[in-house]
Design a protein that fits this description.
SH3 type barrels; 2 domains; mainly beta; seven-stranded antiparallel beta sheet; six-stranded mixed beta sheet; single chain; Elongation Factor Tu (Ef-tu), domain 3; 5% helix; elongated
Length: 175
């Protein structure tokens, strides 16, 4: 099964040669350019676009797409959601970086919907979404209550089991 993942959206035009501004959901933001082709979804339609070039620009990213050669063509893409095939993102959930001491890598999209339990087996709920704080990422877990749990792998987050869709945490259920 080939799932798609949303990695950003077209947020504007850049210059007169068809470049688009991109609001990237990736971290770092410029990583949105590493994945191609893009499937642009807008108003119930889908267009496949190959990324030709791109770069960081200020706080954002700009990109040149195949056959988009003027400002009007670029403007027609504003608001389009950018999706890519999940397989283009790299290893599946839990795959390790090269090197024996490297931490595990997780894509946020892989964590959404996973159940979160304490080390004693108490279910806290399911991952609703994640956000960045600057210091670390935070999981928003929704169940009988709402928990904001720092995603600190190896200390707070003890394990992530992609097959069982389960995250085990060292966390007080009353917090």
């Amino acid at each position: 099964m080939n799932r798609r993942v949303s990695i950003g959206r077209v947020s504007g035009v850049f210059g007169v040669r068809g470049w688009v501004k991109v609001y990237s959901y990736t971290s770092p933001r410029v990583n949105v350019l590493r994945y191609s082709p893009w499937y642009l979804l807008q108003d119930g339609r889908e267009v496949t676009q190959k990324v030709i070039a791109g770069q960081a620009h200020g706080d954002g990213v700009v990109a040149s797409l195949a056959n988009i050669e003027d400002r009007d063509a670029a403007a027609a893409l504003i608001g389009a959601e950018i999706e890519v095939d999940r397989a283009t993102l790299g290893p599946e959930l839990g795959a390790e970086h090269r090197g024996p001491a490297a931490p595990k890598e997780f894509f946020w999209v892989d964590l959404h919907g996973m159940e979160v339990r304490t080390r004693t087996g108490t279910s806290l709920g399911f991952v609703d979404h994640l956000f960045e704080t600057g210091a670390n990422d935070v999981m928003v877990v929704v169940g009988t209550g709402r928990h904001l749990i720092p995603f600190l792998y190896g200390s707070v987050v003890e394990s992530v089991d992609g097959d069982r869709r389960l995250i085990t945490v060292d966390w007080d259920p009353d917090f």
